[in-house]
């Protein structure tokens, strides 16, 4: 089945890795997914949300530079649908600059609250496109279309047309729902979300109150989006999309490929694979989190999914938490939050994921 994807992203290093994976899957060398239906993958738009990047317009500029830098593979391939349709992929993938404010600004949070969000970290994130040696923009002050333009744009497509892949806080999607709930629910057939700390008994990768950053930053947006979409939501929580997605041995092996001194071969790599390798050189953890969620779009067989009744919390001190209704522990958990049924990943084939990464980098 054709998938027409909108990537809603806060443009961290792992988001860009996920973006490159999607581009790679759309390209001729991307190989098949489960159904060998790579040609049926279509990235239609990228929208940016405040998260790891604090400025959504700057984030949009980074996205455009990445698309420009990865484009020659797609353009150069006669076999590819963009070429056969005679469309320039850079101008055919829309870029929207999304929300700069949380849905309830007074209850929202920001990644910059994290102790790990140091000056050096922010410098690296701000200057990501330069560090990745992405092509410069002709107009470095370019302003991008906004969420209301995105709504207008979506109107011209058939119902149930879009698959939304959300790899940042859910602010944009909640705002789109507030602007035109009926339209968004009609146009979006599926919503794959990287976020939340569900089934996470080990409580790793969690912060402050036990939540996960994307949900913590905008708990109200998470509540609005999950309630609106229900079982159309396919949640990749940090139970599957986490730092431990590779084991120590696999990390060592991947690192040896990333850092191997193969300058000549590097030049011969296609632009997208070269970009992936560069990402790992600058921020090795880029393979974790968001790329796992992106992989679900083309290799759903790597995942075990189930319907689950959850509660989503948007108010202090539980903001950003998502919990299975069956295992609520305290009165506060039972008496607050919104109950909703969603679909969530409860298992993931990490070895298959590693083999896929290796085939790209090695
Ligand atoms: Ca992200």
UniProtKB/TrEMBL annotation:
GO molecular function, one term: purine nucleosidase activity
Gene Ontology cellular-component annotations: cytosol
Sequence ranges assigned to domain Inosine/uridine-preferring nucleoside hydrolase in this UniProt record: 5-355
A Pfam family: IU_nuc_hydro
InterPro entries, sorted: Inosine/uridine_hydrolase_dom, IUNH, Ribo_hydro-like
Keywords (A to Z) from UniProt: Glycosidase, Hydrolase
Gene3D superfamilies the record matches: Ribonucleoside hydrolase-like
GO biological-process terms attached to the record: purine nucleoside catabolic process
Family: Belongs to the IUNH family.
Cited PANTHER family: INOSINE-ADENOSINE-GUANOSINE-NUCLEOSIDE HYDROLASE, INOSINE-URIDINE PREFERRING NUCLEOSIDE HYDROLASE
Annotated protein name in UniProt: Predicted protein
Organism: Naegleria gruberi (Amoeba)
């Amino acid at each position: 089945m054709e998938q027409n994807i909108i990537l809603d992203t806060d443009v961290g290093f792992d988001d860009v890795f996920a973006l490159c994976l999607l581009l790679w899957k759309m390209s001729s060398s991307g190989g098949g997914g489960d159904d060998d239906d790579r040609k049926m993958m279509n990235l239609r738009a990228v929208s940016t949300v405040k998260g790891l990047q604090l400025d959504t317009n700057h984030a949009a500029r980074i996205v455009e530079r990445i698309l420009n830098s990865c484009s020659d593979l797609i353009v150069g391939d006669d076999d590819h649908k963009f070429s056969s349709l005679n469309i320039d992929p850079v101008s055919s993938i829309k870029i929207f600059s999304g929300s700069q404010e949380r849905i309830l600004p007074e209850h929202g949070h920001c990644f910059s609250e994290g102790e790990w969000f140091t000056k050096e970290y922010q410098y690296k994130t701000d200057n990501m496109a330069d560090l990745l040696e992405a092509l410069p923009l002709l107009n470095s002050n370019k302003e991008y279309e906004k969420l209301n333009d995105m709504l207008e744009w979506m109107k011209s497509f058939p119902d149930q047309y879009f698959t939304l892949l959300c790899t940042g806080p859910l602010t944009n999607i909640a705002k789109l729902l507030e602007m035109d709930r009926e339209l968004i629910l009609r146009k979006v057939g599926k919503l794959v979300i990287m976020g939340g700390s569900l089934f996470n008994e080990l409580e790793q990768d969690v912060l402050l109150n036990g939540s996960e950053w994307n949900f913590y930053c905008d708990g109200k947006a998470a509540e609005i989006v999950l309630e609106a979409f229900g079982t159309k939501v396919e949640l990749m929580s940090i139970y599957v999309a986490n730092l431990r997605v590779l084991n120590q041995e696999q990390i060592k092996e991947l690192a040896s490929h990333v850092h191997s001194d193969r300058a000549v071969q590097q030049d011969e790599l296609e632009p997208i694979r070269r970009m992936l390798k560069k990402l790992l050189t600058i921020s090795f953890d880029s393979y974790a989190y968001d790329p796992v969620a992106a992989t679900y779009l083309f290799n759903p067989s790597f995942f075990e999914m189930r319907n689950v009744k959850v509660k989503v919390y948007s108010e202090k001190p539980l903001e950003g938490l998502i919990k299975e209704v069956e295992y609520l522990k305290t009165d506060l958990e039972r008496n607050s939050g919104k109950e909703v049924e969603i679909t969530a990943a409860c298992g993931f084939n990490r070895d298959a994921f590693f083999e896929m990464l290796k085939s790209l980098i090695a």
